[in-house]
Amino acid sequence: MTAWTNDELTRIGTADELQMAPVRGDGTLRAPVPVWVVRDGDDLYVRSYRGDAGVWWRTARTSHEGHIRSGGVDRDVTLVEEAGSAVNDRIDTAYRTKYGRYGGAYVDPMVAARGTTLRLVPR
Which residues of 6-25 are buried (b: 16+ CB within 10 A; e: fewer)? Predict the structure, then answer.
């Protein structure tokens, strides 16, 4: 399994958004959508603002593959479900810290969407 480089972690982790294009069942990419991304150590995570109703997330959950662009990084990724994981407390804190300037109307749904947490693993 490939690991993120320190440069990739920094560039993606400090970017405001990530363009996520999950792989559909027929192997094609969905149109990319902007999502918030947070870093925890050497890992990167995303969640669906709309919870499990998010169309991009439902596609990602089915295929567990996608393509991301963020901070000048352009990579294919494996999407690993982290629902119920102990890491979710740290991810909640990361969302509040990184995006707190946008207020609770935006951050609270991201924290509430713990069940949609996906870890991005480079391929």
Answer: eebbeebbebeebbbbbbee
**Strand ranges (DSSP E) for the chain?**
18-22, 33-35, 37-40, 43-46, 65-70, 73-81, 118-122
Structural domains in the chain plus CATH codes: 6-120 (2.30.110.10)
Query: pLDDT truncated to tens, each residue of the chain (123 aa)?
Result: 589 999 999 999 999 999 999 999 999 999 999 999 999 999 999 999 999 999 999 999 999 999 999 999 999 999 999 877 789 999 999 999 999 999 999 999 999 999 999 999 999
